[in-house]
Amino acid sequence: MSALRAGPGRWPTLAFAVLGLAVGGWLWVAVPQRDAAQRDARGTREALIVRAREISKEFGLAADDWRATAKLSAKPRSEDRFYSDSETRSTLARPVRFADVVLIDPRDGERRVSVRLGEDGRLLGWEIAGKGSEDNDSSGDGDSESEQRTDSKAAKPVSPAALGPMVRLVVQHLAGVEAERFRPISSRPPEPDGSYELEEQDPASSRLVWQIRLAFSKGHLVKASLQPDVDEESLLGRLRWHLTTGDLRVVGSLVVWIVGFGAVLIGFQSLQRRSFNWRWFAVCAAVFAGLLAPSAWLGAWSDDLAVEFAKGSSAGLWEVLGRLFVVAWCAWVVLVAEARSQRFGGSAAWASMRMALSGRWRDAWVARSVAAGIGAGALMALCRIAPEMLWTPEPHWRALDVGGLSPGPVADALASFAQTGVVAAPLFALVWAARFRTAWLRALLMLIPAALLAMQQTRTDLSAALLLWSALAGGALTVVLYSVAGALAVVIALPAAWLWLAGSATGAQGVLWALAGLGIVGLLGGLREAEPVDARWTPVDEADLPSTRREKLKAEFTDAREAQQRMLPSTAPDLPGYEVAAVCIPAADVSGDLYDFHALPDGRTLLSVADVSGKGMPAALYMTLCKGVLAAICEEASEPARIAMLANRNIHAAGGRGRGQRKVFITAALAALRPESGEVEIVRAGHNPPLLANASDGMSFVKPSGLAFGLVGPGLFDPRLTSQKVSLAPGATLVLYSDGITEAMDREGNLFGEERLAETLRAPSSARELCTRIVEAVNTFVGGAAQHDDMTLVVVRRTA
């Protein structure tokens, strides 16, 4: 029974879960009040699409039956500096956030209208593009649509005489109350084919001129845009560089790419060391792909795919393949981080993650990580919205930017799992930083990447200083969460922050109830006493130890193994009419398993198999203690139950009882054989049930009750201990074994199990042959997978 104490503690889990759920409740109430789109029907997706259709109809295009998509956009980064540094206060200054509505002709996907609307519903740009017309003026506000070919047949023709009213109508939509201030740049009237420009001097800045640019093709309006025209020498030349949120995001993006590509390269080293788990990679990739799928059908990605597939373009297929590549990349980076944790002393932080990937969701360690992750997600969501809350006293249009104008923001929040910058890169950065031994350097290197990556996900264009502090808070929270609750909690917390905001900002109460319910279930499941973590969930790669130190340790362990093997009985007892055989195969250099034979005062022979919790040197030391205790007791006592009670008293007294000390326990199966009659009295102290094979009764597992040695004191141990007597008829076989036999796992995580063990006893064999057959059956089953636990057998067969 190889086990150790590892995983998130009970009280850190409680702190994260309770505090996070309280913050989640506050988000539920406060976030909708900060999003003007929920308080003003004009800012909803449906209202903006209706507005775009109305404007297009006024411009001579009936697009009521055209398919519509909408999403939030941000102004170009180059404009961040201009709007923050210039003294303009004009109402024409474009907002930080605006909506792009695309109307697609269902009969010809190449024909579409792009409409850009501000938060007040004012038109910022209008363009019709498609196939089969002349090239048009591509200058404008930087839209990719401006580089498309315009469609001269898409809108109702406008005669030259009617161009004047059309110009006034367009200017009114673009400029609003400032429309009367615009004057034509040229005295030449608008022409059916060509461009027409108007301008207005900004009232607050003599160096800034606002321009409206219109384009006509064969009497059709094909493009209209409003943009600033800046005297770069007089205005921008005076501006000095200062830190903006755009600069910070660029740095965060660079960190994501550097970390991601570095993890890909390091992953090949993990392949060479055979520490990369392909099965878990497939599980991660499948989970990421499954969470990405709703966005393709319900969220913002569905809009993008609709545009590409409507055009009949292969870009949609390449988009799908690109997303699948990102999914595989994310799974790769996560598993590389897991493999690297085995080399730098962080393997214990991944124990609950490995359990979850193997399907052990009911384990208390996994429940604690889930609860801590859900609660920490709410705290990270608070860090993300703090800049908006502090900077803007009034609600900001789509300030939270959760899903934007997506038809399914919750689906998009789920898809955040499949983003390298959300889950994979932060995990690898945390593992990489843990390799440094100096505490302050390790903490600094863990905080900086986590902060930069958190900054990449914090969506605000309001204050670079607030964004920086918010990112540092999010990074520190990530580091603390990884340290106290493990990698699984981080994997859950980072996307959970998106889900908390998506549910709050869109009024999706089902999502919020699901998050709160999952957090409470995890909290309640994690409050129960957790069993020790099996050591197979915390593997360690020792290849990085200095060669001299490694060789010295190997030599010491070799000596310890030889000494331990000498402590086991060299020969089996010679019992007339019986065959006895035994074997012990350690999983590590030394073993925590034990078998032994003792002559009792009443003439019986005691056969024993014991298994110490944990493995390696600590387990080997307790194995030595157990052997000595049993040998001393068997000098005086004959009843197996009495022997077990006295052994528990001694081992319980020797085990650690102080606060924070790991509780060591030993399971054992004791069988007292009376050779004359074949009667066997069996006591089981929390151990695997012995297997009895009688020709008359068939196979049966002997299951008297009992607790493990050292787990509890005599007051609880003695009343729960029972014994059971069985008879060994001629030809019958009794097998005592440790859980390293039945719990041996193949590469897919399947257990050897009791049924396969019983199957090996069906063919008659000698005791020695049966030992060999069982070990060979286990090795064949695992198929080369690493041995995770010690394997011990004692076989008794009555021959006459």
Compose a concise summary of this entry.
With 800 residues, the chain is an alpha+beta fold. Helix content is 47%, strand content 16%.
Assign a percent range to the helix content: 40-55%
Query: Taking strands numbered 1, 2, ... along the chain, how are they ordered across the largest sheet?
Result: 2-3-4-5-9-8-7-6
- Content-based structural category: alpha+beta
Radius of gyration: 36 Å
Total strand segments: 20
Helices, by number, come to 24
The major sheet is characterized as: 8 strands, antiparallel
Distance between the termini: 35 Å
* CA-based shape: elongated
Low-confidence stretches: 1-6, 76-88, 132-155, 233-239, 395-400
User: What value does the average pLDDT take?
Assistant: 76
β content, as a range? Answer: 15-25%
Describe what this molecule looks like in 3D.
The chain is an alpha+beta fold and 800 residues long. The protein has an 8-stranded antiparallel β-sheet with strand order 2-3-4-5-9-8-7-6, sandwiched between helices. α9 runs parallel beside α13 (420-433). The protein starts with a strand and ends with a strand.
Search tags:
800 residues; 8-stranded antiparallel beta sheet; alpha+beta; disordered N terminus; 16% strand
